[in-house]
């Protein structure tokens, strides 16, 4: 993987593949037990797409996301981000890849408690080369009026939206979200999904959301169902809903 | 099952457990080592004195008939008396140009002294008492590398004789072969020769000029002293005295007393710091286990069980630290005591560690651990289980003081994060800073005295005693004799001196010293004030060293009772008209004319100070040795060199030991804090890594606070070290030599460097953990 400068954002045509994975397998050795987390996954995710990875706990969806996000490497198979080979990259190359191209959102927001909302975002924009202004990122997630609040002064949903702002402020090519609503109630969960959908729509950022919550799949362009380490089905959503239209 | 959890916790936290145990061990090393060294030395002094039957009363004079000796036994309280003959003479050692003085002491007719017994360390006893066979004191022998079989020249009553060394001995009377000066053991040797031989050389057949006395238990030393004075006064005896005024005993006691201050203050400080750190570490450790504690409570574990469980945890830490600390302390104690015993040349050496010393160290450590555990547990068990099982709510933060006054723009979020963490938990930051600072402080407190001795040698002595060589005469002569010295080739300037031994008293307090005659225009011995500015010499009255005045309870204008111990035994009440500030002597001065008037001896001198041409030093010294009536020639240069070498060696040893202790404390504090910070922040930091922060960036965030604390701790530790040095000095007894409070930049720098290195090493160890942060884990779970 060679050093990349920021690339022009792909047009929201949906035609250009961002991720291409072939035969991805991942075997964890835990003591004497081998766990097959992925058993040969092939997939393509296109630029500006909104993809939901749906499946029960332990089906391998997090492992897949971790490999695509440069947090983990597969046991076998290949994973490419555009022309970057994620399979054979070094630790430093993966760090640079995450820094330049990937935005992560966690189930638990993992904000720095001693920094305000805007400072949490600034901490990340200071590490990137062409970030948006931190206030702009917070405005995108609807927190333009909460810039100076500390995590302890915000609700869970607000904290998660700060985490999204933090993830997208560096203008990543992809936004990877692992159970972003997992720790939230229904109402706040929807607000968070709206923020993700808006980023995807307005900035054209490719979004991949992991969830075990089936109704969330309705807001995706495509839904990939996973079971037992394999992709069981891939469906294009005939009638994509807006987050405020769904219920669970 | 709880015990299994205990073992697993200990194993999982092994690095932190070891770090805290290391701090505990460091505290115990300092405590056990210093206390046992002090105890060993005082015990050694006492047992050596008893074994060698060290005298309690001493008297020296001109010449008294031997038939006076036996009746002295009738003095109430006296159990044993031994009379002898002793003279100080010039020595000649092949290859040594500098002036050496030998004290020739006659051995009794029957062979060996019964009082002040000698211990033979090499060679043999004298077997022909009327020959030139001699025994030499161990210190002198080893410093000049002489031993049995060698010869040494001595000027016995003006006649050069060659003494044949047959044995090397130590004597309780000359543990510190001192004539009251600094570093005498190199230029002052003691020689024991047959009585007949010495008496014949000095015309002392049937006579004695020294007598030593042993007293029965509980006898009045003062009464015996007074009676001796009464009986021997006519024979030129200059006043009997007890051990308190005996030069070697005074020096030895002073050295041990100085160690006593170290041996008691330093260990308390070091152990105190260690206990404090143990407390902090345990409190935090229990804090991070709040979830587990709640779960245990929810399962029905009662508070007493939890208490026992965590007490065991603390107990293990202390039990790991204690043996290491006690073993290290024993090593430290043996090394220090041995170093001193060798320096004093006490022949027998036996290290002892009284059981209460390690026991009290362990008990104190356990108590500190128990307090920490109970304090921390109380806070946790008060929470209802359900609340405690949830991770603590995000802690509240607010803008810092610096930001409120508008400095926020000056620093980045990373810096803000560090500053806010410090501001939010000021106590924790303070404790950490204090812990690191104390490592710096302890190191400075243990090594500053080397700088003080340097200052003493370079400034104190050189400013006050500006001569190259000082000469003492056998007895006072007319000052016209000064020309004999000023006319010697190579002597650039000579000034007459007049020193008279005295006893100064104020009520019951008294002190034996000497009064020096001062010339108002002296170039080599000016009277100086505290700031080394020349002060006028009062025409009348007496100038007292300020510390001596304090010891005697005298203020300016008070009068002091002066008894001259030589010549006509003049006594007078003199007003104190000024103070002097010598740090190495407790002496008195008078205007030389006033002193001479008082003594009624006309214009007399008892010695001379000389400035000499360095190029002709050897020739001048040779000529001085051959000058009649010269008993002692003292050169300042070699003494300073010798003392400096000795001090440097001792300081080096202490620097080494304290660097290990200070380094261990710093390592323990920094490592433990870093690990706890890592435990608390693992999720935040791993999230940042996921978002693309490099290991370096994340490490900066993690270790920035510690770095800031270390940087604040360094100057604070320097201040603390200075304060500790100050209090050690303040606690020190008033002794002949008063160390000035001086800490050289190099001492500060060394302490800071050691602590900084320990900090960096622990940071690097923790950094390796940052590299192993579980990036995948943070996406999923939290506790």
Verbal overview:
The complex is a heterodimer of chains A (248) and B (783). Chain A is α/β, with parallel strands linked by helices and 248 residues long. Chain A has a domain at 48-72 and 102-245: P-loop containing nucleotide triphosphate hydrolases (Rossmann fold, 3-Layer(aba) Sandwich), CATH 3.40.50. Chain A has helices at 61-68, 91-101, 117-125, 134-140, 156-168, 186-203; strands at 17-30, 33-46, 50-54, 76-81, 84-85, 102-105, 174-178, 206-211, 222-227, 230-236. A 6-stranded mixed beta sheet of chain A has the order 6-7-8-3-9-10, sandwiched between helices. Chain A has a 4-stranded antiparallel beta sheet with strand order 2-1-4-5, with helices on one face. In chain A, helix 6 links the parallel strand 7 (174-178) and strand 8. In chain A, helix 3 crosses helix 4, helix 3 (117-125) runs parallel beside helix 5 and helix 4 (134-140) packs across helix 5. Chain A starts with 16 loop residues before the first strand and ends in a 12-residue tail after the last strand. Among the domains of chain B are: 55-249, no CATH class; 491-612, Barwin-like endoglucanases, CATH 2.40.40. In chain B, the strands form 4 sheets. Chain B has a 6-stranded mixed beta barrel. Chain B has a 6-stranded mixed barrel with strand order 14-15-19-16-18-17. The mean pLDDT of chain B is 84. The A-B interface holds A 62, 65-66, 69, 71-72, 92, 95-96, 98-100, 102-104, 106-108, 110-115, 119-120, 122-124, 126-128, 150-153, 166-167, 170, 178-179 and B 393-398, 412-414, 416-417, 420-421, 424, 683-684, 686-695, 697, 775-776, 778-780, 782.
């Amino acid at each position: 993987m060679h050093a990349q400068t920021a690339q022009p954002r792909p047009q929201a045509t949906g035609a250009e593949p961002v991720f291409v994975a072939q035969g991805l397998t991942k075997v964890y050795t835990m003591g004497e037990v081998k766990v097959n987390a992925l058993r040969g996954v092939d997939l393509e995710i296109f630029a500006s797409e909104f993809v939901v990875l749906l499946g029960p706990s332990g089906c391998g969806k997090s492992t897949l996301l971790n490999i695509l996000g440069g947090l983990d490497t597969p046991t076998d198979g290949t994973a490419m981000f555009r022309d970057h080979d994620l399979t054979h990259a070094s630790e430093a190359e993966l760090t640079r890849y995450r820094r330049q191209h990937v935005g992560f959102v966690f189930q638990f927001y993992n904000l720095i408690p001693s920094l305000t909302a805007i400072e949490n975002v600034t901490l990340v924009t200071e590490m990137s080369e062409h970030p948006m202004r931190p206030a702009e990122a917070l405005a995108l997630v609807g927190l333009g009026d909460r810039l100076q609040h500390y995590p302890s002064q915000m609700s869970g949903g607000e904290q998660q939206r700060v985490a999204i702002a933090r993830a997208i402020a560096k203008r990543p090519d992809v936004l990877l979200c692992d159970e972003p609503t997992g720790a939230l109630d229904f109402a706040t969960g929807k607000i968070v999904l709206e923020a993700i959908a808006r980023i995807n729509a307005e900035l054209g950022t490719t979004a991949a959301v992991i969830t075990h919550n089936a109704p969330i799949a309705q807001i995706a362009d495509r839904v990939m169902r996973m079971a037992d380490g394999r992709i069981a089905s891939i469906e294009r959503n005939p009638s994509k809903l807006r987050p405020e239209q769904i219920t669970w | 099952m709880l015990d299994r959890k205990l073992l697993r916790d200990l194993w999982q936290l092994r690095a932190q457990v070891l770090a805290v145990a290391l701090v505990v061990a460091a505290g115990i090393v300092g405590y056990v080592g210093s206390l046992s060294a002090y105890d060993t030395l005082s015990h050694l002094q006492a047992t050596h004195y008893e074994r060698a039957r060290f005298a309690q009363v001493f008297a020296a004079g001109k010449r008294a008939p031997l038939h006076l000796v036996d009746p002295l036994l009738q003095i109430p309280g006296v159990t044993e008396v031994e009379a002898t003959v002793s003279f100080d003479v010039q020595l000649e050692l092949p290859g040594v140009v500098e002036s050496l003085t030998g004290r020739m002491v006659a051995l009794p007719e029957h062979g060996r002294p019964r009082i002040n017994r000698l211990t033979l360390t090499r060679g043999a006893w004298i077997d022909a008492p009327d020959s030139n066979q001699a025994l030499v004191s161990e210190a002198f022998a080893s410093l000049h590398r002489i031993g049995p079989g060698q010869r040494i020249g001595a000027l016995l009553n003006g006649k050069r004789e060659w003494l044949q060394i047959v044995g090397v001995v130590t004597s309780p009377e000359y543990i510190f072969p001192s004539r009251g000066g600094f570093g005498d053991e190199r230029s002052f040797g003691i020689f024991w020769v047959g009585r007949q031989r010495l008496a014949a050389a000095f015309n002392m057949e049937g006579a004695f000029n020294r007598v030593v006395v042993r007293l029965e238990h509980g006898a009045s030393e003062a009464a015996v002293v007074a009676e001796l004075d009464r009986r021997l006064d006519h024979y030129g005896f200059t006043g009997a005295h007890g051990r308190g005024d005996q030069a070697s005993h005074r020096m030895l006691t002073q050295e041990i007393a100085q160690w006593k201050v170290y041996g008691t203050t330093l260990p308390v400080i070091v152990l105190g710091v260690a206990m404090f750190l143990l407390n902090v570490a345990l409190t935090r450790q229990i804090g991070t286990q709040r979830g587990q504690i709640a779960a245990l409570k929810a399962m029905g574990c009662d508070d007493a069980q939890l208490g026992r469980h965590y007490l065991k945890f603390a107990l293990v830490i202390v039990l790991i630290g204690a043996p290491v600390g006690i073993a290290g302390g024993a090593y430290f104690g043996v090394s220090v005591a041995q170093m001193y015993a060798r320096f004093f040349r006490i022949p027998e050496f036996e290290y002892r560690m009284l059981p209460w010393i390690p026991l009290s160290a362990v008990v104190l450590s356990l108590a500190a651990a128990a307090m920490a555990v109970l304090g921390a547990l109380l806070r946790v068990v008060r929470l209802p289980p359900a609340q405690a099982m949830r991770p603590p709510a995000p802690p509240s933060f607010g803008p810092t003081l610096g930001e409120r006054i508008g400095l926020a723009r000056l620093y980045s979020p990373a810096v803000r994060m560090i500053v806010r963490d410090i501001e939010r938990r000021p106590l924790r930051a303070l404790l950490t800073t204090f812990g690191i600072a104390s490592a710096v402080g302890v190191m400075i407190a243990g090594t500053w005295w080397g700088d003080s001795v340097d200052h003493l040698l370079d400034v104190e002595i050189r400013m006050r005693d500006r001569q190259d060589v000082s000469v003492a005469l056998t007895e006072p002569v007319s000052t016209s004799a000064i020309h004999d010295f000023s006319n010697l080739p190579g002597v650039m300037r000579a000034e007459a001196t007049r020193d008279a031994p005295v006893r100064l008293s104020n009520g019951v307090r008294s002190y034996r010293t000497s009064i020096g005659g001062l010339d108002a225009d002296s170039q080599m011995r000016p009277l100086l004030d505290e700031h080394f500015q020349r002060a006028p010499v009062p025409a009348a009255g007496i100038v007292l060293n300020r510390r001596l005045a304090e010891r005697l309870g005298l203020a300016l204008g008070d009068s002091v009772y002066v008894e001259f111990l030589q010549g006509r035994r003049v006594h007078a009440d003199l007003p104190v008209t000024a103070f002097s500030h010598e740090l190495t002597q407790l002496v008195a001065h008078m205007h030389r004319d006033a002193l001479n008037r008082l003594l009624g001896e006309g214009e007399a001198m008892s010695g001379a100070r000389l400035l000499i041409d360095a190029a002709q030093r050897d020739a001048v010294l040779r000529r001085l040795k051959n000058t009649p009536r010269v008993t002692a020639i003292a050169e300042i240069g070699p003494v300073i060199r010798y003392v400096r070498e000795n001090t440097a060696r001792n300081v080096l040893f202490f620097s080494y030991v304290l660097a290990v202790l200070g380094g261990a404390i710093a390592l323990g504090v920094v490592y433990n804090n870093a690990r706890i910070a890592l435990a608390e922040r693992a999720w935040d930091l791993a999230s940042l890594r996921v978002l693309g922060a490099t290991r370096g960036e994340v490490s900066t965030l993690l270790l920035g606070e510690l770095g800031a604390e270390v940087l604040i701790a360094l100057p604070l530790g320097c201040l603390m070290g200075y304060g500790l040095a100050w209090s050690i000095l303040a606690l020190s007894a008033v002794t002949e030599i008063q160390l000035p409070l001086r800490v050289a930049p190099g001492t500060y720098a060394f302490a800071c460097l050691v602590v900084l290195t320990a900090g960096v090493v622990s940071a690097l160890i923790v950094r390796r953990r940052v590299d192993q942060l579980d990036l995948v884990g943070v996406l999923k779970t939290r506790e």
